[in-house]
Amino acid sequence: MDAGGVMRRDGAWFGSGWRIGLIGAAALLAVAIVVPGARAEIPVPDADPFYSTPIDVGEYENGAILDTRPIAVLGLPLPVAGWQVRYRTTDSAGRAAADVATVMTPLTPWTGPGDRPLLSYQIAEDSLGTRCAPSFALGGGRDLAITNTLLDVPFLAEALRRGWAVVVSDYEGAQSRFFDGVNSGRAVLDGVRAAKAFAPLGITDVSPLGAWGYSGGAFATLWAMQLRASYAPELWFAGVISGGVPAGIPAIARGVDGGVQAGLGVLILIAMTRIDPGLADSLNDSGRALIAQESASCGSDLVAHHVFRRIDDYSAIPDILGSQAFRSVTDRQELGGWAPDVPLYLYHSNFDDVIPSSGFSDLVDRYCALGATLTALHSGIPGHNPAAVGEALGAMNFLTDRFAGEPVTAGCAVR
């Protein structure tokens, strides 16, 4: 960082600052869990009336603001203004619903070109219960459920340091529907609508919009972009970045099955039964007990609870992950049915230990065949989480250029 406070494009400041940020996130996690803090305990969403759905929610337009309240971001005295915004959305069954987003903006004036940009940031919620929702953690919640959100704190901090306003939606909704593409995509888009309409955030009609998500957050981000033209055509995104993209859901579950992260496969199995309850007919008694036992668990809980377990331990049929019953549910949630019509920057480790890279390659090929404009980076950084950190600079610089109005070449660039 030079004396004028501008980030060097060679990433020297960013690299060291990122490491410091990751250490800080780990420290925040430890403090947030162990130390109660000098403030009233934040109730979990299910016990917080703010999250309730108004009986007249169907009378509002998508993205309409239903309620707001200020928050201290992470429950700490940070130089960031924050609010929770409850807004109207429409779930994947076409029902009116209420969702909550956290909106944040730096306290310093915007000094870049044009008006302050708005970034829609999708945290990997990866949950079966609302206590795992990002708004609970960002509002100062103290529980192990905040783990996934705190891991994204360095990315959020860098976005705010660059002067961007940020909206983080609880895109899984009140029913915590993991890997429900339409539900997630609509909630993201309506969260952006609500953030734009929230006057204290200072976003104008000419403020550039961007979106970013990694892993489970990439799923929600790209589903939102696939739905944008039909569901929220008034929202134009200058640029969208997504990494560690979950494509090929059965392959993801099969890849972790029986290993140290087998709980992610359990998460996927339960999530699919929530999307299509008929899938539960393929489970045995242990599987049905599993659904009841883990009905409000976070992904981090499930990983801890189900090390080395096999999905077929819960199935009444052999190889449930390869069955027609399972794939008929996952097929409807896969990315790639439509190509986003906004500029994309996608990245994925060639040696991802959680999400096979073959699914990413197939999705990129599909998007390109459908006419998308994208840059796709096949990263040589080994591992799902290391690639999230190591490729963040290039991704954020792509957004910075789009926010500055620099044009992007149409078509696909794959490297």
Number of helices: 14
Distance between termini?
29 Å
How would you sum up the major sheet? 10 strands, mixed
Number of domains: 2
Report the CATH C-level class of the largest domain. Answer: Alpha Beta
Rounded to the nearest angstrom, the radius of gyration is 20 Å
Identify the CATH architecture of the largest domain.
Answer: 3-Layer(aba) Sandwich
What shape does the CA trace take?
globular
Structural category is alpha/beta
Quaternary status of these chains?
Answer: single chain
Strand content: 15-25%
List segments where confidence is low: pLDDT < 50 over at least 5 consecutive residues.
1-30, 33-39
General description of the model:
Strand 2 and strand 3 (96-106) form a beta hairpin. A 10-stranded mixed sheet has the order 1-2-3-5-4-6-7-8-9-10, with helices on both faces. The chain has 415 residues and is α/β, with parallel strands linked by helices. The chain has helices at residues 12-34, 134-138, 147-151, 153-161, 181-197, 216-231, 249-256, 262-275, 285-293, 299-305, 324-330, 357-369, 384-390, 392-403; strands spanning 65-71, 80-90, 96-106, 118-122, 165-169, 209-214, 237-243, 344-349, 374-379, 412-414. It is built from 14 helices and 10 strands. Helices cover 37% and strands 16% of the residues. The chain has 2 domains: 12-247 and 337-414, Rossmann fold (3-Layer(aba) Sandwich); 249-332, 434 Repressor (Amino-terminal Domain). The radius of gyration is 20 Å and the shape is globular.
